[in-house]
């Protein structure tokens, strides 16, 4: 009777985390009220907030050279915060476009300076991928290079970290904590929380400290990295419940054995699903093999007239939210950290049965 939720975001969170949150909902730390009802300036809240940051630092081995910020306005909030904080007036920022989200970042950046698209892989039918770095038209004077290691909509994921002179800025909204990274490779990493971290609205920003203090004078204070860093991300009231829940997810990840252990599980889950799709003529994935996302698996039915039936019956079978993004159509199974392998097994079993009955 299990329900497995394949939503791309807000996405399924670990059941253990949700159960703990439920238990403490009305009485957090014996205070007789919810964490949602506690001042962010209280010693209890500040201790929890610091511990969450510390746990994230441990999970990703983040050194003291980096600030960790808990910001407002989700992933998209960073699309403008980054140019406002890192790009001088009239400056240029290089952008690698590999799908919808990296394209979205370009549009927003253009409001603040020159967003130079150094490569643009638009939707390429059966052959979605990433142009080799040797073909990128890099600027000499870019304030940074922005890219999206995992494109949530197209299911395209980098299997390497670009090597460029400019500080590397990565939108890790849909892949943070899913695989091991070396934070030192990046100038700035950011992620909207609602996939691998917690509730939407919160964004985590990990920024090298030498990049702080360069914000344009018209940057709103709550989006100014330097000001937020100085005030422990509490310049105003932070998204307190989201921060608390993120803290529970970080503890859960540590209990799982950390990012390395979770990455192994993610590799196994993705392999199970892609192998099944590749072996069954009834389904198709259209991404070049080594750029296939471990987190978001788009797939198409051979007969697209069966899409509605597939969605209806999968929902009845407890497999939720498999509809692909409207921009690319088809289906999409998002299999973030919280998705157990049992969920992927249930999905492939359903897909096999559906193919048999309708093929
Ligand atoms: N970047 C990526 C890669 C995403 O997948 C998303 C949302 O799905 C966003 C940015 C935007 O995040 P938000 O909705 O929190 O603004």
Automatic annotation (TrEMBL):
Compartment(s) where it occurs, according to its Swiss-Prot or TrEMBL record: Cytoplasm
Tagged with keyword Cytoplasm: yes
Cofactor, free-text remark: Binds 1 pyridoxal phosphate per subunit.
CDD domains, A to Z: PSAT_like (cd00611)
N6-(pyridoxal phosphate)lysine PTM sites in chain numbering: 195
InterPro entries: Aminotrans_V_dom, Aminotrans_V_PyrdxlP_BS, Pser_aminoTfrase, PyrdxlP-dep_Trfase, PyrdxlP-dep_Trfase_major, PyrdxlP-dep_Trfase_small
UniProt binding sites for pyridoxal 5'-phosphate: 75-76, 101, 152, 171, 194, 236-237
Residue intervals of the Aminotransferase class V domain: 3-347
Coiled coil: none
GO function terms (MF aspect): O-phospho-L-serine:2-oxoglutarate aminotransferase activity; pyridoxal phosphate binding
PROSITE patterns: AA_TRANSFER_CLASS_5
Catalysed reactions, semicolon-separated: 4-(phosphooxy)-L-threonine + 2-oxoglutarate = (R)-3-hydroxy-2-oxo-4-phosphooxybutanoate + L-glutamate; O-phospho-L-serine + 2-oxoglutarate = 3-phosphooxypyruvate + L-glutamate
GO aspect biological process, one term: L-serine biosynthetic process
Subunit structure, as described in the record: Homodimer.
Reported function: Catalyzes the reversible conversion of 3-phosphohydroxypyruvate to phosphoserine and of 3-hydroxy-2-oxo-4-phosphonooxybutanoate to phosphohydroxythreonine.
Protein name: Phosphoserine aminotransferase
Source organism of this protein record: Saccharobesus litoralis
Lineage: Bacteria, Pseudomonadati, Pseudomonadota, Gammaproteobacteria, Alteromonadales
């Amino acid at each position: 009777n299990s329900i497995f939720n394949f939503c791309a975001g807000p996405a399924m969170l670990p059941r253990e985390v949700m159960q703990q949150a439920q238990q403490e909902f009305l009485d957090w730390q014996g205070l007789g009220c919810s964490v949602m009802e506690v001042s962010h300036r209280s010693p209890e809240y500040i201790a929890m907030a610091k511990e969450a940051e510390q746990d994230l630092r441990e999970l990703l081995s983040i050194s003291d050279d980096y600030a960790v910020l808990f910001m407002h306005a989700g992933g998209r909030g960073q699309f403008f915060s980054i140019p406002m904080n890192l790009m001088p007036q009239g400056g240029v920022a290089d952008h690698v476009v590999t799908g919808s989200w990296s394209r979205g970042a370009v549009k927003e950046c253009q409001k603040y300076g020159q967003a130079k698209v150094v490569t643009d892989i638009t939707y390429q039918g059966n052959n979605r991928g990433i142009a080799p770095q040797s073909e990128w038209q890099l600027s000499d004077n870019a304030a940074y290079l922005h890219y999206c290691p995992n494109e949530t909509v197209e299911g395209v994921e980098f299997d390497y970290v670009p090597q460029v002179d400019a500080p590397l800025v990565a939108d890790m909204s849909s892949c943070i904590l899913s695989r091991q990274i070396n934070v030192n490779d990046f100038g700035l990493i950011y992620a909207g929380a609602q996939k691998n971290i917690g509730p939407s609205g919160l964004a985590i920003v990990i920024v090298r400290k030498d990049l702080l203090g360069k914000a344009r004078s018209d940057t709103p204070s709550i989006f100014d990295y330097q000001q937020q860093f100085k005030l422990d991300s509490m310049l105003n009231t932070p998204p307190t419940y989201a921060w608390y829940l993120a803290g529970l997810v970080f503890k859960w990840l540590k209990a799982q054995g950390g990012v390395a252990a979770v990455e192994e599980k993610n590799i196994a889950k993705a392999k199970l699903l892609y192998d099944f799709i590749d072996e069954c003529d009834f389904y198709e994935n259209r991404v070049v093999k080594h750029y296939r996302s471990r987190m978001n698996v788009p797939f198409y039915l051979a007969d697209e007239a069966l899409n509605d039936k597939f969605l209806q019956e999968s929902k009845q079978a407890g497999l939720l939210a498999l509809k692909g993004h409207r921009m690319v159509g088809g289906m999409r199974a998002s299999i973030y950290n919280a998705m157990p392998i049992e969920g992927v097994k249930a999905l492939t079993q359903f897909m096999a049965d559906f193919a048999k009955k309708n093929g």
